[in-house]
Amino acid sequence: RCRTCKTIEAYTREALQTAFPQDIQSGLLEFMSVNIDNAENSHFVTDYQLVTRSVVIAEFVDGKQVRWKRLDGVWNVAGNKDAFFAYVQPEVRAWLRSN
């Protein structure tokens, strides 16, 4: 995985932990990092229509995915942590509110 991919992963994890600690603690929100280069994870490319690595928000009910959203803009802000947080945190906040 490239340096930018690792940065996106680290920034996403920190953005969620910083803005949503209660949601993470309660289990409402969970961070998962998936390496799509591994054969067992390659289906995510099709599932989420990935052109490149990205951040995906997904909702599961009773173990079944009911909706998802890809945050492709992470590549535009990966070089600026504050801009990254300013992009990801409101997206996740809006997603949680629409639940």
For the structure shown, list the relevant keywords.
99 residues, alpha+beta
Structure characterization notes:
By secondary structure, the protein is an alpha+beta fold. It contains 5 helices and 2 strands, in the order αααββαα. It has helices at 3-19, 21-26, 43-47, 74-77, 81-97, and strands spanning 55-61, 64-71. The chain has a two-stranded antiparallel ribbon with strand order 1-2. α1 crosses α5 (81-97). The N and C termini lie far apart (32 Å). The mean pLDDT is 93.
Topology:
Elements: H1 3-19, H2 21-26, H3 43-47, E1 55-61, E2 64-71, H4 74-77, H5 81-97
Antiparallel strand pairs: 1-2
Helix pairs in contact: 1-5
Concise summary:
By secondary structure, the chain is α+β, with helices and mostly antiparallel strands. It has five helices and two strands, in the order H-H-H-E-E-H-H. A two-stranded antiparallel ribbon has the order 1-2.
Order of helices and strands: HHHEEHH
Q: Profile the largest sheet.
A: 2 strands, antiparallel
Mean pLDDT across all amino acids: 93
- Discrete helix count: 5
Low-confidence stretches: none
Strand order, largest beta sheet: 1-2
Q: Between the first and last Cα atoms, what is the distance in angstroms?
A: 32 Å
Number of strands: 2
If you compute it from the alpha carbons, what radius of gyration comes out, rounded to the nearest whole angstrom? 13 Å
- Helical fraction equals 40-55%
Percent strand equals 15-25%
Q: What is the approximate shape? A: globular
- Helix-strand category: alpha+beta
